[in-house]
Write a structure and sequence with these properties.
Layout lengths: L35 H16 L7 H17 L1 E7 L6 E7 L4 H6 L4 E7 L8 H20 L2 H22 L7 H58 L8 H25 L15 H27 L14 H13 L1 H7 L1 H7 L12
Antiparallel strand pairs: 1-2, 2-3
Helix pairs in contact: 1-2, 4-5, 4-6, 5-6, 6-7, 6-8, 7-8, 7-9, 8-9
Length: 364
C-alpha cells in the first residue's frame, strides 16, 4: 500500500485521550540523524499498535511522526512510499530542494533519493531480495546522473517495481513456486526496460551536460581574451586598431566557435556513434571535459594563425596581404576539424622533426 503521511497529523489530542483507549504520551527527543530503517521500524510499530492493540493516536504514532519530521529535515519530503504491514520493510522516494529557500528562488533541481529497507521481509526470498538490491543500485544511478523529468520517470518506475515485489513478499499466504517465479521474471523484464530507458536518457543528459560545459569554456575564453587584451594594451604592446591584432582575436574567437559547431553538428547528425559521451563517469567530469573543447579549438586556430604569419605554411594567399576574412575562415576550420589542421601543419611538424620515424636498431 502506497501512503503519504503528513507530519502535521502528529499533533496529540488536547485531552490526552485516544479514540479507542488511553495512553500517556511522555515527551521524547531524538538526538542525531534518523536513518530510513529507524523510520521503517517506527512505522511498523505504529501499524502494530493500530491493528493489534487497536489504539489510535497512541505513543507509537507520535514516535513515528517525530522521527518522520527529523528524517524529512535531513533528506527531504517523502514523495511516495510503500510500507509493508507484516514485516518492518519499506521503500520510499524523497525530494529535497538544495539550499532551502535560495534553491527555490533560483529554481534549482531538487535532489531525489531512493531509500530502501527490505531485508527483513525478503530474508526467505533471495531472488526477490536480489531484484530489490538491483532497484536500489539503479536508483542511485538515476539520482546522480539523470535530471528533471527523466529522473522522476525512472525513479517512480523503479519504486513501482520495488513496491510490487514487496507486496508479493509481504503476503502472509504462501504462494506457489510457479507464481513466485512469474513475479520474479516479470520484475526482471521490467527492470531491463527501465535500464534501457536509463541508457537513452543518460546519453541525452550527457550530451546536454557536455554542451553546457562548452558554454562554460566559451565564457572562460572570453574572459581570458578580454583580460589579456586589456593587460597588453595597458603596457602599450597592443593596438586594437591594428590589422594584425584584429586578425589575432578573430582567429582566437573563430577557433572556439568552430569547435562548438563541430560538436553540435555531430550531436544532431542522427548517426549512431557519431558523438559518444560516457555519461556514467558523472556530470562534473563531463562538464569539465566539455569546457576544454573550445580551448582546444582556439589553440589550434592560434597555432595556424602564427604558422601563416611566419610563412611556415601558405594556403593560397600572398603573405602579409591576407584580409580578416581569410584568417577567420581558416581559424573556424581549424577549430571545426582537428584532422584538417593537423594535415595543414604537417610540413611544420616534419620541419621540427616531430614526425621522424624512430631510428632502426642494428641487426644482431
Amino acid at each position: 500500500m502506497v501512503t503519504r503521511v503528513k507530519p502535521e497529523a502528529a499533533a496529540p489530542p488536547s485531552n490526552g485521550q485516544t479514540a479507542v483507549g488511553e495512553r500517556a504520551t511522555p515527551p521524547r527527543t531524538h538526538v542525531g540523524p534518523v536513518s530510513f530503517p529507524e523510520l521503517v521500524w517506527a512505522h511498523f510499530m505504529w501499524q502494530q499498535e493500530v491493528h493489534d492493540e487497536r489504539i489510535l493516536h497512541g505513543e507509537a504514532e507520535h514516535d513515528f511522526h517525530r522521527l518522520l519530521r527529523h528524517f524529512e529535515q535531513a533528506h527531504g519530503e517523502i514523495r511516495n512510499a510503500y510500507w509493508c504491514t507484516r514485516e518492518a520493510s519499506a521503500v520510499a522516494v524523497t525530494e529535497q530542494r538544495p539550499y532551502g529557500r535560495l534553491g527555490r528562488f533560483l529554481h534549482l533541481h531538487p535532489i531525489v533519493r531512493f531509500h530502501s529497507a527490505t531485508h527483513w521481509v525478503t530474508r526467505d526470498l533471495p531472488e526477490v531480495a536480489g531484484l530489490l538490491y538491483r532497484c536500489d543500485a539503479m536508483a542511485a544511478k538515476f539520482s546522480e546522473l539523470l535530471r528533471h523529468g527523466s529522473q522522476h520517470i525512472a525513479m517512480d518506475w523503479t519504486l513501482a517495481i520495488a513496491g510490487r515485489l514487496l507486496g508479493f513478499a509481504d503476503n502472509p499466504t504462501p504462494r506457489p513456486a510457479a507464481e513466485a517465479e512469474a513475479v520474479v521474471e516479470s520484475a526482471r523484464a521490467e527492470l531491463d526496460e527501465v535500464d534501457d530507458y536509463y541508457q537513452r536518457a543518460g546519453e541525452a543528459t550527457g550530451r546536454l551536460v557536455y554542451f553546457w560545459g562548452m558554454m562554460i569554456g566559451v565564457a572562460a575564453l572570453g574572459l581570458i581574451g578580454l583580460a589579456g587584451g586589456l593587460l597588453l594594451r595597458s603596457i602599450g604592446e597592443l593596438d586594437f586598431h591594428d590589422a594584425a591584432t584584429q586578425n589575432l582575436f578573430a582567429s582566437y574567437s573563430l577557433g572556439a566557435v568552430g569547435a562548438v559547431v563541430s560538436v553540435l553538428s555531430r550531436m544532431t547528425s542522427g548517426r549512431k556513434g557519431q558523438f559518444f559521451v560516457d555519461f556514467e563517469v558523472g556530470r562534473p567530469p563531463i562538464r569539465r571535459v566539455g569546457s576544454f573543447r573550445p580551448l582546444l579549438g582556439a589553440v589550434f586556430a592560434l597555432i595556424l594563425y602564427f604558422a601563416l604569419r611566419s610563412d611556415l605554411v601558405q594556403l593560397g594567399a600572398d603573405s602579409g596581404n591576407e584580409p580578416l576574412e581569410y584568417y577567420a575562415v581558416l581559424s573556424f576550420f581549424a577549430g571545426f576539424s582537428e584532422r584538417w589542421v593537423r594535415g595543414v601543419l604537417s610540413p611544420v611538424a616534419q620541419l621540427a622533426g616531430a614526425d621522424d620515424p624512430p631510428a632502426s636498431q642494428p641487426a644482431p
